[in-house]
Amino acid sequence: MSYHVDQFYAAVSVLAGHGHIKQRLMSAYGDYLDGIAEDELPDAVRESFVELQRNLHRVAPLNGEGPVCASVRKMSAEEAGECAVSIVAMYRSMVRHTDGGQSDLTLDHENRKAVPPFLIKSV
Length: 123
Description:
mainly alpha, 5 helices
């Protein structure tokens, strides 16, 4: 299971990187998630993963491109963004499943630093 969590972490890291969302989605899924079989995943993410697979293999490839490339090429930027969000949500669920829900982020209001003035948008 930790292998799959690591694969999702790598995919999320690519999604958070530079470049157009379609390129990041193709890299994240193609490099890290495409080889995962849905029956290897926890029940909590299996349905979402099958839907993601369906979305990223729905278009027949042309001229030597793969099905992921063809499918993402036909997506709008919004559709690609929705796929990216689903990958992040699946990663979150897998981490929660792996550590029994102990990874929730908590806010530490005691040690919170003030926002630097240059980050505050002036009106």
